[in-house]
Structure formats: C-alpha cells, structure tokens
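Students often ask why inverse folding is considered easier than folding. One informal answer: many sequences map to the same fold, so there is more than one right answer. In these notes we will look at a single instance of the problem. The structure comes first.
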C-alpha cells in the first residue's frame, strides 16, 4: 500500500525542480493531466500553479503553453487538420490521438469532440470512420446493444458510445426518440443516478483509469453528468482538489 504524501511547500518546489531537470513540461494543463496530486497540492499551498512554478525559480510566462508560438485556437486546429489531410494521413480519432496527441487534446478542449473539429474543417467524420449513419443503421446498433444487455440510458451512452449517441440525436431529434424508434421502452433504461459524494469520487477514479486523463475539459465533454455532479457535491473545492481527493482515496 502506497503511503499518502504529506505535501508542503518545500516538497512541492523539489518535485517541480525534479520535473524540470528530467525534461517534463511545467505548463498547468500537462501537470494537471499527468501529476494531478502535485498540481492539487501546489494550488493548495501556493494558491495557483503559476505561483508554485515561480517559487521554484522558473519564469512561468516562458513555459506556459498559452504564451508560446504553438498557442492553440479553433483556427489553428482546423489548419492542422487540413495539413494532415493534404499529407494523406488518417483523420480518425484513434490515429490522431496516437500520432498527434497535442492536436487531439487541443481539439477536445476547443470543440466538443475530435469529430466535431473534423466536421468544422469541412470533412464528413462519419465517412472518415467508415460509418454512414441512417435511421436503419442506428436502430440496428441499438438493438444489438440491447441484446447484449448494454445500458442504453443517455448518460451511459454519452460516456461509452458517443458516436452512436450523437447520430441518434441528430437523426431522430433526441436519444430517447432513437431508442423508442427501435421499439424499446426508454424509461426502462433511463437511470436517475443518486450522485453522492462517494459515488462521484468512485466514478472519477474509474474515468481516470479508463482514459488516463483527469482534465476538466475532457471529463465535462465526455461525461457531463459526472462533471456537474462533482461541482454540486464539492462546491467549495477547485477541480484539481476534487481530483486529488478522488485519487488519494485509492492510497489510503
């Protein structure tokens, strides 16, 4: 069992210097996604990540990605997508996430999904994925999932099968109408989760384990119900502190 770290300012500064010496980025988004415990502790003891970095002797403006030439914007993301297309590279999510991680992450921050970024660049993402959704194909997929005993509630589908969920909403007007069109009783699948603090923390841990990411942007887009429940249950905590609370429980 891992011992819980007793964070203090000296230890935080030491860890930041260690990261710098080993060549790791020190911008807030990277640390929040890859070392949420350090990020949360820095916010707690120094009031902000920037203050912690500068207390360690590094000028934050020089390392902050937002002040560098590769500052992301919707326009730059679309330009990068066009460049990939011109070079003949695949534009599907799995390929880009593996080979162009920063672009994929930026797209998820600035758009609701990678697919939306591709659509905004003027491409048909369903065709890129090899999927041409129709009423018939959506209904068929819903029935296949139902036969497998899958949870067809809106919240679960948004978390586990966003392409099908988005196609159902687009073609039928809502996910509920898509399920009804398949001849199924939507109310039988609909789940009203009781979002207790314990359940919120458990769901956050599961999400981080599955996606290796704790970014507020990613969770709010991929699992909006969880994000909103976390904000309601932990009103006085920052997102980094919520993540720290969730991950620390596994160490106790």
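Output (designed amino acids):
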């Amino acid at each position: 069992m891992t011992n819980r770290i007793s964070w203090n300012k000296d230890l935080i500064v030491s860890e930041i210097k260690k990261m710098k010496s080993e060549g790791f980025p020190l911008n807030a988004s990277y640390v929040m996604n890859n070392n949420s415990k350090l990020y949360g502790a820095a916010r707690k003891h120094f009031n902000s990540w920037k203050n912690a970095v500068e207390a360690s002797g590094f000028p934050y403006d020089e390392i902050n990605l937002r002040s560098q030439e590769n500052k992301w914007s919707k326009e730059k993301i679309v330009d990068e997508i066009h460049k990939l297309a011109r070079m003949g590279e695949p534009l599907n999510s799995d390929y880009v996430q593996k080979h162009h991680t920063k672009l994929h992450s930026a797209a998820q921050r600035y758009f609701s999904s990678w697919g939306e970024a591709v659509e905004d660049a003027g491409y048909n993402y369903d065709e890129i994925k090899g999927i041409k959704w129709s009423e018939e194909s959506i209904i068929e997929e819903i029935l296949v999932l139902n036969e497998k005993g899958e949870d067809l509630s809106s919240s679960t589908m948004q978390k586990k099968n966003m392409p099908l969920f988005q196609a159902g909403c687009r073609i039928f007007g809502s996910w509920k109408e898509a399920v009804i069109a398949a001849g199924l009783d939507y109310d039988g699948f609909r789940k009203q989760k009781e979002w207790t603090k314990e359940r919120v923390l458990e769901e956050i841990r599961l999400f981080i384990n599955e996606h290796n990411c704790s970014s507020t942007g990613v969770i709010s887009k991929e699992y909006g119900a969880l994000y909103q429940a976390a904000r309601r249950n932990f009103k006085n905590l920052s997102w980094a502190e919520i993540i720290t609370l969730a991950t620390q429980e596994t160490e106790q």
